[in-house]
Automatic annotation (TrEMBL):
Quaternary assembly: Homotetramer. Forms an RuvA(8)-RuvB(12)-Holliday junction (HJ) complex. HJ DNA is sandwiched between 2 RuvA tetramers; dsDNA enters through RuvA and exits via RuvB. An RuvB hexamer assembles on each DNA strand where it exits the tetramer. Each RuvB hexamer is contacted by two RuvA subunits (via domain III) on 2 adjacent RuvB subunits; this complex drives branch migration. In the full resolvosome a probable DNA-RuvA(4)-RuvB(12)-RuvC(2) complex forms which resolves the HJ.
Gene giving rise to this polypeptide: ruvA
Comment, domains: Has three domains with a flexible linker between the domains II and III and assumes an 'L' shape. Domain III is highly mobile and contacts RuvB.
Name of the protein: Holliday junction branch migration complex subunit RuvA
SMART domains given in the database record: HhH1
Source organism of this protein record: Midichloria mitochondrii (strain IricVA)
Family matches, as InterPro entries: DNA_helicase_Holl-junc_RuvA_I (IPR013849), Hlx-hairpin-Hlx_DNA-bd_motif (IPR003583), NA-bd_OB-fold (IPR012340), RuvA (IPR000085), RuvA_2-like (IPR010994), RuvA_C (IPR011114), RuvA_C_sf (IPR036267)
Top-rank taxon, per record: Bacteria
GO cellular component, one term: Holliday junction helicase complex
Any Pfam family hit: RuvA_N
Length: 201
């Protein structure tokens, strides 16, 4: 199994690159954000997930170990294969994905091409309790889950703000950051402060 590759980029295509490692060219499927950042002749390192399916080997490459781990979590969901998981990471940053899972923001996943309402709901429902997703890999996550009670209040505030038309995951992130600094705040005040920050009042 291949875990990591470091080599020279020798070909860039719409969804793939070929990386030359000691004279051997490996085809890597990588997120569009990583694809936009590579250039022919550049030496790069990628964390690699090796998928073996029906006798076919497919390599997926990621610029960080945390992004690879998030990919691995996504493909545990029924109906999410490697291509769908890669589409998610191409449309959303790892922080956005994690925020959407914690905030139970189904709409965020429905925006990804190829994901319908049922699959979006399944992603959120199956991954929301996986603590491996919130191990401090992304800056706001530590703030997002200081205590179970705080997380529940942040979700309540996010639900109210989502009903007002704000993005649920962004509302959750804002509420969680406020709660980190003031765990005694009431839900009503939390909603007001979150609304104020989101609208920059």
């Amino acid at each position: 199994m291949i875990g990591k590759l470091t080599g020279e980029i020798c070909l860039i295509e719409s969804e793939q690159i070929i990386i030359d490692v000691a004279g051997v060219g490996y085809v890597l499927n990588i997120p569009s954000s990583a694809l936009a950042a590579v250039q022919i002749g550049q030496t790069k390192s990628f964390w690699v997930f090796t998928q073996v399916k029906e006798g076919e080997i497919t390599l997926f490459g990621f610029t960080s170990k945390e992004e690879k781990q998030l990919f691995e979590a996504l493909i545990t969901v029924q109906g999410v294969g490697g291509k769908v998981a890669l589409a998610i990471l191409s449309s959303m940053t790892p922080t956005m994905v994690t925020a959407a899972i914690i905030a139970q923001d189904i709409t965020a996943f429905k925006r990804v091409s190829g994901i319908g309402p049922k699959l979006a709901a399944r992603i959120v429902n199956e991954l929301k309790d996986k603590k491996a997703l919130v191990t401090g890999a992304y800056s706001f996550i530590d703030a997002a889950t200081p205590l179970e009670g705080s997380q529940s209040m942040a979700l309540d505030a996010a639900s109210v703000l989502a009903n007002l038309g704000f993005v649920r995951s962004e509302a959750f992130k804002t509420a969680a950051e406020i709660l980190k600094n003031d765990e005694q705040i009431s839900l009503e005040e939390l909603i007001k402060k979150s609304l104020s920050q989101i609208t920059n009042i």
